[in-house]
Queue: 4 jobs
Job 1
Amino acid sequence: IPFYGELGSVNPVFVTEGAAASRPEAIVSEFIESFTLGAGQFCTKPGVLLVPRDSAIVERLADAELPKAAPLLNPRIQEGYVKTLDELASQSSVSVLRSGDADADLGADPPGPTLLTTAAADLLADLREGRDEVFRECFGPTTLVASYDNEDELLAVGQFNPRGHSGGMFAGGLAGGDAGGLAGGVGESVGESPPAFEPVTV
């Protein structure tokens, strides 16, 4: 009997203001490579990317080249993916930034990579109230980009983040104590620029 051992996790990636200003192109390239790896069917896939609202990250993601659509493991996973994606995209605080195939709908089979956007404030409200409507796993080639207004919001998401399989941080310009606190939302350590978005040390 086939067993696909995906155990469920959101795996957020945190981008500090300093990192976003110094290397936005590299961050976008590495993040796209990671969330689309294996058509997003890894339990370590980054499901949320937190970026400064006034950075170039969101604009670059909107214009970046995305991989072509790829089939999911089986029809049941495809069905679950479409259901979760529809539920996420239907939230009043969530918008579709782009989909890999502009001519296809979100329920296409095979699915193209999809980027959703929200505000970090709405993500925080979802976490604090335990609704799991926005901060949730979407198993497949979809990720949520949350824009924060200041690094206090970034740190707050790190404090509320439930345990996951993985996480990552593009660091730069964050005070040592704050970086250490944020590490609680990433893993046991903080990364400078982790291409696979697993915890690494500075």
Job 2
Amino acid sequence: ADDLLEAGAVWAAVQALSTNTKAGFVYGIVPSIDAKGKEVGLKRSGPPDAEALLRSIYFGAPGVFIRRDCLERVGYLREDLLASDWELWLRLYFVGGCEGAYLKRTMGMGREWGGCRSLNDRARYHQDQRNVLGEMLRQGWIRGRLVRRARRAMASAGLNSARHHWHSGRRRDALANYCQALRDSPPGFVRWHLGQCRQKARS
């Protein structure tokens, strides 16, 4: 594996799960490092937030520790997805009803380098995100006010996929993603484009 565990992380997770019996998993702070081990970013999670989880990875994989019964309840990691860790967090939260507990300490380090599959094909990664959200909505696992948020997140993922397709010269795939995003959430589509316009205006 490319990622690293922080010294004492396993023991900290065991203690937290033993103390908080309602928690199905625990997670902490995960800095990002490059191929040489230099810190290049920080994935700082906070207390569990369903809306934030719909939009992004949120939990750094090296810093997540899951109870065995929770993992067996929702199933293991899907190897067919580039966004497999995020999809597992969604299943834990929305399908398994597993509560997460946040540890305010560094639990591991996630390596970002040229060999990372999720970094090498961002178009597919974002398309995976859109497909996962669509499946969860169809199954009825995401309900109530979060449905609209999920549809906006679907549109955002589709638009990000379109952007990467466009820059790599796959214009037909990009246009298909744009159309999907517009169907997924017209307000999300408009909001995304306004955000792109603001970024261009600032630059």
Job 3
Amino acid sequence: SGCRDTATALVYIEDPKLDFTVDKPAICRDQYATFTPKITDGTATAYWWVADGKSADTNATIFIDTFYTTGLKTIKLLIRDGMGCIDTLTKVNYLTVAKPVARITATPMTGCWPLNVKFTDISTDAPGVALTSFAWTFGDGGTGFTTTPSTSHTYLLAGTYTVTTIVTDAVGCKDTNATTKITVWRPKASFAATNFYPCAGDS
């Protein structure tokens, strides 16, 4: 019969744009970071975060996580919008978690007084995190502060001394576990006599 009909329907297409930020780009180990999502051209109804390889299912807009290991952390966010569409965003090495591991060497570690000892800090930290200051305690009452990893100290008295250093990195993280011992000797000369009033020819 040649009859025709036409129907029209509205189709809503959402294309949410996903981003997120962190309150601090670098933190110390055992501290927390706060992540905030930013969504445009859509609304999210569910959030799934993956931080440091661990998944956290949450519907909270703000995600807070504590990091117990050092290194560069990759963060991933997955969202579902009101239409059921899924979007993901991964930021590789997005957060730096730092913590210096303090170690020092000394040369020499033993010797006679006065003994000048050179100390070198060989501490390590997360990749890309610089060590910025070193506070030294030499064990004999002497102290020092340097912004380079080497220093020296002279011991003027015999004894065994425990040397410690507190190292601080560019994030502000510290470690105080580095110690070494220095032993300084000072021989004491002495002699004994059996005849205090010798005559000529005595031996």
Job 4
Amino acid sequence: YTNESTGAYAAKLDGSGHSDLIHATGAAALDGKLVVSSIDPYIQWSKTYTLLQSGGLGGTFATFDTTGLAPSSYWTPTLHYGASDLTMTFVSTGKTYATVATGLTPAGAAAAAALFAAHDNATEPMKSLLGEIDALDASSPTDMAELGQGLNQLAPDASDAGFAFAENAALLFSGELGDRIGALQSSAAAAQGRTRLALSGN
């Protein structure tokens, strides 16, 4: 397999931890552009995505284009060139939902921490919710205030002492918190077209 200087390899990821893969039985020579995109807004950050396997890997891609990936303020896509394979992982930026959302109550902060910890084990409808949260702009005061409001409403009442998020993130998928997740809906931002969180219920 040869990717020439004018060539491009376009690889796609999905929300279940899978990616396109080129399997070359012989040697692979890399140059040109690697374009990675996602077909789902939700991505499993902890996964290692194998994009190419070969009998021997030479060269590197001159350009790594990730503009087609679902946006994230929390992880940075990073390539790893091995002797015979090319993989991609997501490296933490050090930010979490709890560190970027503003106006969090203690219960909201606990919900943020639990959501972030449970991110890669999510199923629907949790995947859709997390995809919407991930797409919010962590540098936008408006988006982060909205995220904080949403997490505060998502959390159980302060009187609900039975909810111990840090001890068991599985609680996110059942019971009262699950009901509140079901009430958290998305809507488009009218002015700028950003993904926004619209709250109903509770």
